[in-house]
Amino acid sequence: MQKRWKILTADETKITALQDALKINKTLCKLLVQRGINTYEEAKFFFRPSLEDLHSPWLMKDMQKAVNRIVSAIEQKESILVYGDYDVDGTTAVASMYQFLSSLHEPIDFYIPHRYKEGYGISKAGIDFAHEAGYTLIISLDCGIKSADLIGYAQTLGIDFVVCDHHLPDKILPPAVAILNPKQIDCPYPFKELCGCGVGFKLIMALSEHFKLPNESYLKYIDLAAVAIAADIVPVIGENRILAFHGVEKVNKNPSTGIKALLELAGIKKKMSLNSLVFVVAPRINAAGRMDDARKAVLLFVEQDEAKAMEYANMLHSDNTNRREADSTITEEALAILEMAADNHLKSATVIYQEHWHKGVVGIVASRLIETYYRPTIVLTKSGDYAAGSARSVHGFNLYEAVHACKEHLLGYGGHFAAAGMTLDIANIEAFAAAFEKEVRARITEDQLVPEIIIDSTIQFNEINPTFYKILCQMEPFGPDNMRPVFIAHNVMDTGFSKIVKEQHLKFSVKQNNISFNGIGFNMANKFPLLQSKQNVDLIFTIDENDFQGNISLQLKVIDVRISE
């Protein structure tokens, strides 16, 4: 699939001024300016994330109310239930809050709704469970802001709620005792992009300060906060950057028992980055909710005994193996169906249904299909008597609006700009698919149907050296709003030693003005003829280290290549 290349620009005067202040490579200064870093002080804040720069939790609206209600529950020996969603953000938040409060109070328990029996967020079943078991306070994490009716129902049963959430509030707020959510219009909290676990972390921080506990009483959960930040795809700037930086540091030096068990099972020997948490830890936690019950993810994180933690980690590992097998099999089946469809190449959207597909992986499969057919995609399967599915979008296209426009064919739907979910009668699938195709075709632009590679900067091979790479590494942790820098080098030549490895990957050996680098391009064997053509090429890549038998060298991780203009 041909991709569009877009090279970002930055203000030259700002780049020059920053270079004068920092005395480092100009390309690095361009990367910093692109990230809104224009002065020595801003660079210091960026390169040296300090826990002292975390905001006071008391700046958050309703924090005092939340602390007062929890303190009252502790003093009155009320039963407290910690309630959270079944994804990574929810389970890490619940594990942190449950462990912290357990050290101060009992009776206390936690509740994770079942993905398929109860669905997302606060459920009536969860509230009824709390009522029957005598809980009078529920602390909800990563959910609750949109549950006005259910929290009102809990109120009639004598159950109070403290809501910790980060999703956009509706106009009608739930009747909770306290709502902690920086995205509330009248919340003065300076940083708006915390994840659910991050909001919970701030509440633990405030409670620690109230009880005059040492900082370690909340910092011990910072590795779980980093896992949540990694998995929930929130901007890695400001306070999230501080939490992620120190959280990853804890993962590498002194991880909680549960994270340690997951890393051991995954066979991880090298240092973890925020990006590695996305690919190693997050899928194993998410798999618990996708394939079975996410409660065991919390049990893993609260377990202190290493042998028992390993048992829970094995369960998650097994769920993840099953998830991968289902994901791989369904993706193959779906691609085969699309390839057989005579009109597939004419479509602006994909809607595909098979009743035997596993509901827990249809969202992942939708993302996989977009890698081959770059267009808005919906994957449906049978769920009880109905069809249910997940939708994923392409860059810049508002998927939720397109689904909303087809609502006459649906029983229920929800989502946001880039992803959505829906249920419908099986008999309505064809009509919905036709309506969705028509809607996407009317709204989508030609550019949105071509994947785009965002390139931070042009670079010369003579700039790439250990000093440059060392400073580049100090820009970590990478994530949204601070992505790993992507470079382009123009007029590069093959040295004659590039070759195809393992039939599908391309090992690059290239030079520019007599400076050579090796590189790897995964699944790029089809680009080998471009190197053999003896013409100059342009390369897009990130830079990383290759450790071969103890010999460490810089290498290019190639993303795309084409003949130079």
Describe this structure in words.
This protein is α/β, with parallel strands linked by helices and 565 residues long. It has 3 domains: 259 residues, inorganic pyrophosphatase (n-terminal core) (Alpha-Beta Complex); 109 residues, Diaminopimelate Epimerase, Chain A, domain 1; 111 residues, OB fold (Dihydrolipoamide Acetyltransferase, E2P). Helix content is 41%, strand content 20%. The protein has 21 helices and 19 strands. The strands form 4 sheets. It has a 5-stranded parallel sheet, sandwiched between helices. It has a 5-stranded mixed sheet with strand order 7-8-9-11-10. Helix 8 runs antiparallel to helix 10. The two termini are 19 Å apart.
How would you describe this structure in keywords?
globular; OB fold (Dihydrolipoamide Acetyltransferase, E2P); 21 helices; inorganic pyrophosphatase (n-terminal core); 565 residues; alpha/beta; five-stranded parallel β-sheet; Diaminopimelate Epimerase, Chain A, domain 1; five-stranded mixed β-sheet
